[in-house]
Amino acid sequence: MNTLPSSKPPRLDARLQAAADFVRPGSTAADIGCDHGKLSAWLAGSGRCPLVFACDLRPGPLAKARATCAPWADRVVFRLGSGLSVLEPGEAQDIIIAGMGAETILEILDAAPWVRDAACNLVLVPATKHSLLRLGLWRRGFALRAETLCRAAGRLYTVVNARYTGRPCAPDAWACLTGLTAGQPAFAEYLAQQTPKVEKYRRGLPPGPEAAAVDALLQKLRQP
Ligand SMILES: C[S@@+](CC[C@H](N)C(=O)[O-])C[C@H]1O[C@@H](n2cnc3c(N)ncnc32)[C@H](O)[C@@H]1O
Question: Which of 58, 64, 106, 107 to mutate for ligand 1's pocket (most ligand atoms within 8 Å of CB)?
């Protein structure tokens, strides 16, 4: 047993703490793209998870994670490789993918059909394209269970908790833009942050039904 009894788990910023809060106590977790390893260390060191897989595509970040997680090395297993390919199906039930773009997160989920199991609890923190992540999840039959808007390093992030239900849906543009964030303290600011992105997207659209839908969305966004 190489746990140092006096070691405290690292303090997490609001974004990673919101992600940790969606991880079920007692579950085996996988931190995909763990980088600095703070989330893995917190999950193991706080006692939230008896076993954590800290995984990264690159050796450098994985070495950082090893150092961060050293006091809890008996509860953290390190895996080098892409996405969920480093795990056996079902090896972890709570899967966190944080700090990657929406396309990468969706690619990682697509490459591991075993996450389409009701037992899998997904915690997803897109670095970019929040709307695209929500749309991609809904189209694939995942349901959003909760979202937390939070601020870290001066930016607003959403932390998404999702599970597979097998019931795809086709949400409208407003649903994709806002997800389950409506009514949260930073919601107005979040919308204001999204508006220039929608305007930019609109500028690239030819006239047609999609442009009309985006115009309607912009009108809604600009309402006082
Ligand atoms: C910006 S860091 C995010 C670190 C941490 N998850 C967080 O949110 O603070 C992204 C990390 O994901 C890793 N990464 C990128 N693509 C990956 C993939 N396909 N599979 C596993 N890790 C990946 C990178 O090497 C990097 O360490």
Answer: 58
From the CA of 222, how far away is ligand 1's center (Å)?
A: 35
Could you read off the pLDDT of 141-153 as tens digits, one per residue?
999 999 999 999 9
Contact 130, 48 (CB under 8 A): no
Q: Per residue in 22-71, pLDDT tens?
A: 999 999 999 999 999 999 999 999 999 999 999 999 999 999 999 999 99
The structural domain count of the chain equals: 2
Say if residue 164 is in the same domain as residue 202.
no
C-alpha 36 to ligand 1 mean position (Å)? 9
154 near 57, Cβ under 8 Å? no
109 falls within a domain: yes
Residue 33 alpha carbon to ligand 1 centre in Å? 3
Same domain, 61 and 98: yes
Q: Which domain holds residue 160?
A: 14-170
Give residues with Cβ within 8 angstroms of 154, minimum separation 6: none
Give the residue, by CA position, lying nearest to ligand 1 atom 9.
99
Pair 9, 146: CB distance under 8 Å: no
Residues 6+ apart with CB under 8 A from 9: 41, 42, 44, 45, 46, 72
Q: Are residues 47 and 126 in the same domain?
A: yes
What distance lies between CA 119 and its chain's CA centroid? 17
Contact 179, 134 (CB under 8 A): yes
Euclidean distance between CA atoms 169 and 131, whole angstroms? 14
